[in-house]
Design a protein that fits this description.
Elements: E1 2-4, E2 14-20, E3 23-30, E4 35-39, H1 53-56, E5 61-65, H2 87-100, E6 106-111, H3 113-124, E7 129-135, H4 140-145, H5 149-154, H6 157-160, H7 167-174, H8 176-184, H9 196-206, H10 209-222, H11 225-235, E8 244-249, H12 253-257, H13 260-264, E9 271-276, H14 282-285, H15 287-297
Parallel strand pairs: 4-5, 4-6, 6-7, 7-8, 8-9
Antiparallel strand pairs: 1-2, 2-3, 3-5
Length: 299
């Protein structure tokens, strides 16, 4: 485990790099009390929690981690079978991180891709997760089982990023800044924006070809290996048993297209939640509302 300088964008947090079975997991830690792991979405990194994490760290130990393939975490080469970037593999990284930090049981908060990793982590390791907060997703299995023209338009990257032959990698690599701005802009709520210095850090990460390759492999796995795992879990009647909080944006596709609570009730036994007046990036757009909801929910 190595410690590096604290990011000026996360005052009060200590940056660490932790080896977990050969994969380096980059994280930032602050606070004391019950541990909470927070996982980011696409195309972001742990900085997306910068406005929410300090409020949670008032009475919790908060761990903000970069997923494998993202941010400054390790980026193993993708494999043809889709196992390296399956949510099961990505979840093992985060479970291992928390164990390395001394936390055998913890609460879990995930947004977007991080929420999908969190869903799989909680299914595979129910003994480790005591509470789960899911931000602006419904399960991957449900999304692919209800594809509509509206879904394919709003989430076109779900079908573009898994393409083979190096097509998305080549096109994103030609202008990472254009790609990040083009994917983030339409998903933000009306009048919302992301801090320019934070957006620049997201672009910095995607200027690394290994990030592009890893993130494409993440979406490739979601459309293949992850679906197999999800179908197996659903067929076995496996549900999340710990309390679940679902938050979603009224201006986001999840809020427009689904009834998130009724969907999650098919996958978990104890679900509550609410909509927030945002687009997809809830912690960036309404950090005070997200912080308040999380503080009410977390032990």
């Amino acid at each position: 485990m190595t410690t590096s300088a604290v990011s000026p964008l996360l005052p009060g947090f200590e940056s660490r790099r932790v080896d977990v079975e050969g994969v380096t997991v980059n994280c930032a830690i602050a606070g004391s009390g019950p541990p909470v792991l927070m996982l980011h979405g696409y195309p972001e990194n742990h900085l997306m929690w910068r406005h929410v994490a300090p409020a949670i760290a008032q009475d919790h130990t908060v761990v903000l981690a970069d997923l494998r393939g993202y941010g400054d975490s390790g980026k193993p080469a993708p494999d043809a079978a889709g196992e390296v970037y399956s949510k099961r593999s990505m979840a093992r990284d985060q479970l291992g991180l928390m164990r390395e930090l001394g936390f055998g049981r913890f609460q879990l908060v995930g947004h977007d891709r991080g929420a999908r990793v969190s869903h799989r982590l909680t299914l595979d390791h129910p003994e480790a997760v005591t509470r789960l907060a899911i931000l602006d997703i419904v399960p991957t299995r449900h999304v692919f089982g209800h594809v509509t023209r509206a879904m394919a338009t709003a989430y076109y990257h779900w079908f573009f990023l898994p393409l083979g032959g190096g097509v998305p990698e080549h096109m994103i690599g030609a202008d990472p800044g254009f790609w990040i701005n083009s994917i983030v802009g339409p998903l933000l709520g009306q009048g919302a924006s992301i801090d320019p210095d934070v957006l620049a850090d997201y672009i910095r990460c995607f200027s690394d070809p290994a990030t592009i390759a890893g993130s494409c492999a993440d979406y490739r796995a979601a459309a293949s290996t992850d679906l197999i795992h999800d179908e197996e879990s659903f067929a076995a009647g496996q549900k999340i048993d710990c309390p679940v909080l679902a938050l979603w944006g009224t201006q986001a596709f999840v809020g427009r297209a689904y009834d998130p609570l009724s969907v999650w009730q098919q996958y978990a036994t104890d679900v509550r939640g609410t909509a927030l007046p945002t687009g997809h990036f809830l912690p960036e757009e309404a950090p005070d509302l997200v912080s308040a909801a999380l503080r009410d929910f977390l032990d």
